[in-house]
Amino acid sequence: MYSNLQDSFSKMSGRMKKSAIRELLKLTNKPGLISFAGGLPAPCTFPSAELVEISKEVLEKEASIALQYGTTEGDDLLREQLVKRYVAMGLPINKGNLVITTSSQQALDFLGRVFVNEGDKVIVELPSYLGGIQAFTAYGADLVGICSDEHGMSSKLLEEKIVELVKAGQKPKFIYIIPDFQNPAGGTMPEFRRKEIIEIAHKYEILIVEDSPYRELRFEGTAQPTIYQLDTKGITITLGTFSKIFVPGFRIGWIIAHPDIIDKFVTAKQSVDLCTPAFVQRIAARYMEKGYFEKNLKATIKLYGHKKKIMMESFKKYMPEGVKWTDPEGGLFLFVYLPEHMDAQKLFMTAVDNNVAFVIGQVFHCDGSGKNTMRINFSFCDDDYIVEGVKRLADAIRAYK
Amino acid sequence: MYSNLQDSFSKMSGRMKKSAIRELLKLTNKPGLISFAGGLPAPCTFPSAELVEISKEVLEKEASIALQYGTTEGDDLLREQLVKRYVAMGLPINKGNLVITTSSQQALDFLGRVFVNEGDKVIVELPSYLGGIQAFTAYGADLVGICSDEHGMSSKLLEEKIVELVKAGQKPKFIYIIPDFQNPAGGTMPEFRRKEIIEIAHKYEILIVEDSPYRELRFEGTAQPTIYQLDTKGITITLGTFSKIFVPGFRIGWIIAHPDIIDKFVTAKQSVDLCTPAFVQRIAARYMEKGYFEKNLKATIKLYGHKKKIMMESFKKYMPEGVKWTDPEGGLFLFVYLPEHMDAQKLFMTAVDNNVAFVIGQVFHCDGSGKNTMRINFSFCDDDYIVEGVKRLADAIRAYK
Asked: Which of A68, A290, B56, B182 is deepest in the core (most CB within 10 A)?
């Protein structure tokens, strides 16, 4: 290799950092460790038997489509199934509003690719999803974090910041929000706050990105309308994925937006991977068509509601005083606030020694705040492990010096 | 939608153009048309029965891996199988040299992402693969085309151009070559020319990208060593894919390179799609493990050799004087040279009226040359259609005014 290889790498390459989650997770690869890190669905929710049946049918009847190159927009049948489902939910869309992506992460990458020039401002929540932070930062986005109150991103702080940025000639490219069971904070934005944010977006002509991978996983409370539905001007870009509500191993996500925006994503996709694997798309389409999707989702919601309950009980029972946590109505995560003086990164090492792991909350804060926070997943572990893991975590917190 | 939406799009978005092939192909979507455009494998080569068997086994025994998130580097078993195969072919690699990509197009995108800053020079062949041209251009690469002689990219012209660029402080980031059954020109670079280009690359410390999707599809002549094998300094980045030798519908490709370069691609992949679908990767791994891959590839090679023969015979029989074409020893394409005064784009419309289609050669030339050339695919059509299609094409050429 040339000694000056480093000089060959692009500026973009320099902006891409290894995911802190993924690097820390390497430490958790030890036998006996209980991991509340990651965001893995429970494998028992994977509908293997139905997929055996459907894979066979697809391969026997539709191999010339399912094993061939597909269209960039995505499998026609799958787009039809998804559109039908969203229309039933009240979203006024058709196939021209939807493009399939190879995972929701690809959709986040496309947002950077299609909208962000180096130095452009992008507004995110404090905290926000790490995958979004990474994708936008790779394109040189300058992230502006807006703090939340109990209803999610503060509309007051949002408008103040936008006024300031617009004055400085730095109008943000978009506002990135995870309104349902936010990752990592777990909260859901009520309808009135969604409307306030839409109003601000309209006033200053800024796009909204509604990232919604967990929305369907509601086990308590009342669903709020999507931002896409509430937005009367069609300036919302909504992201969905099968990863948490079906299987992550297919890497199927989608973007819903105005056709002029979808068109840009389709052009991007031609140069990025041409099309998402036709095989998994066709299987997913037939799976939905047969009604398996709704049935399985129902069971998954029930399971995760149960797991959350176990985790809540364990937290109440074992956590030392001064520790606070959210009680989400859906999704996969709790967010935990340690006493102010504690550093979750320091705690992480003690916890791993104690055979339990989590994700430090700081990585979700684009301004480096959140040192005393951590994200806890409850979808992956079996019940006994949830109880035992919380016990170990509480011990680690108590042992913190 | 906001009236000023266009102002929101990034510079990169402006550099991404819809693929000329894909847009022209839309015109060919009419009943009765015989298409020599595209680069689709013959669906009869898709091993559906074996995939029914393996999908079932994977879903029954390994669902918790195959339907879950995977590692960014790629499925461990699949990487092992691929490495084993390359080692047997004489490439001195291990798993640290290989990352799985979601299609070879993703690998091309990664090359732009990891190496190219706006304005950077990248050397390509004249003509070269459109997907590469698009991917590099999206990142702002300034492509420098080098003409070929009968042995592929001219080493003389290459060195002259590099000297000129280095003097101007514009050392190219890499040299992009498709050495085996080049797309679109169909030729294969002999060993001596590969060595000359490696020597030039070493002298000026420039990376080589060896894009090799068709290499295994040799039905005549003698295989040449890969550039990766011949390169003694480990500065070659080799791209492979299952799309032409197994199924495109899985979208599985891979990159072989020095670990320091692989590391950059893995970091890029975290932000781009996190991981390639675990399901198709595990199926592909088991498919290789069972020996189905080699058996099926053998049959595919035989079939494509036969199809090429049919096409050659038809060309000889029907083409008017003044038309010249290549006679490839493998791959999927012929390259056709019309008389100098003819414009293949103009011919394209007549041809489509005549119910036959091809890809105009100009789109593969980064300098806009090649107006009188066209690319003809012979892998997709059945024998009778090949004969009939060539007849129609010859008629269209005769009718050209």
From this structure: B182
Q: Do A93 and A262 form a contact (C-beta atoms < 8 A)?
A: no
Q: Which of A234, A270, A273 shows the shortest C-beta gap to B22?
A: A270
Tell me the shortest Cα–Cα distance from B342 to chain A, in angstroms: 30
Distance of alpha carbon A8 from the chain centroid = 33
Q: Is the CB of B55 less than 8 angstroms away from the CB of A60?
A: no
Q: Which of A63, A103, A267 sits opposite B48 (nearest CB)?
A: A63
Nearest CA in chain A to B8: A115
Closest CA to B185 of B390, B336, B340: B336
Both A160 and A278 in one domain: the answer is: yes
The tens digit of pLDDT for each residue in B14-59 reads 898 776 666 777 777 788 999 999 889 999 999 999 999 999 999 9
Is residue A140 within 8 Å of A119, Cβ to Cβ? yes
> SS3 of A278, please?
helix
Q: Which residues pair with A256 in a beta bridge?
A: A98, A238
Of A28, A67, A207, A332, which to mutate for an interface test with B (greatest number of B Cβ within 10 Å)? A67
Residues A82 and A226 in one domain: yes
How close B285 gets to chain A, by Cα (Å)? 15
Task: Kindly state whether residue B51 falls inside one of the protein's structural domains.
Answer: no
Neighbours of A85 (CB within 10 A): 15
Structural domain contains residue A51: no
Mean pLDDT value of segment B91-100:
97
Cβ-proximal residues to A400 (8 Å cutoff; 6+ apart), any chain: A342, A346, A347, A350
A268 and A349 co-located in one domain: no
Nearest to B40 by CA among B377, B401, B399, B289: B377
Determine the Cα–Cα distance for residues B182 and B179; give it in Å rounded to an integer. Answer: 6
Beta strand residue intervals within A121-259, DSSP E: 121-126, 142-149, 152-153, 174-177, 207-211, 236-241, 252-256
Q: Give A20's DSSP letter.
A: H
Domain encompassing residue A242:
64-292
Interface A:B, Cβ pairs < 8 A:
251
Q: Which two tokens stand for residue A352?
A: 């791993």
| Closest in A69, A207, A251 to B277, CB measured | A251
Q: Tell me the pLDDT tens digit for each residue of A292-344.
A: 999 999 999 999 999 999 999 999 999 999 999 999 999 999 999 999 999 99
Mean pLDDT over the full length of chain B = 95
Å between A43 CA and nearest CA of chain B: 5
ipTM surpassing 0.90, yes or no? yes
Q: Examine the domain organization and report whether B303 and B244 are in the same domain.
A: no
**A231 contacts in chain B (CB < 8 Å):** none
> Which chain A residues have a beta carbon less than 8 Å from that of B69?
38, 40, 243, 248-249
pLDDT, tens digit, 9 for 90 and up, residues A45-104: 999 999 999 999 999 999 999 999 999 999 999 999 999 999 999 999 999 999 999 999
Based on the fold, state whether residues A120 and A241 are members of the same structural domain: yes
Distance separating alpha carbons of residues B249 and A70, to the nearest angstrom: 7
Coil, strand or helix: which one is A170?
coil
| A141 in the same domain as A275 | yes
Buried b (16+ CB within 10 A) or exposed e, A224-258: bebbbbbbeebbbbbbbbbbbbbbbbbbbbbbbbb
Which of helix, strand or coil describes residue A348?
helix
Contact A68 B249 (CB under 8 A): yes
Contact list in A for residue B68 (CB cut-off 8 A) is 40-41, 43, 46, 247-249
Q: What is the pTM of this model?
A: 0.96
Interface touch B279/A247, C-beta < 8 Å: yes
Rounded to an integer, what distance in angstroms lies between the CA atom of residue A181 and that of residue B243?
Answer: 39
CB B101 within 8 A of CB B110: yes
Instruction: Give the separation between CA A202 and CA A195, rounded to whole angstroms.
Output: 10
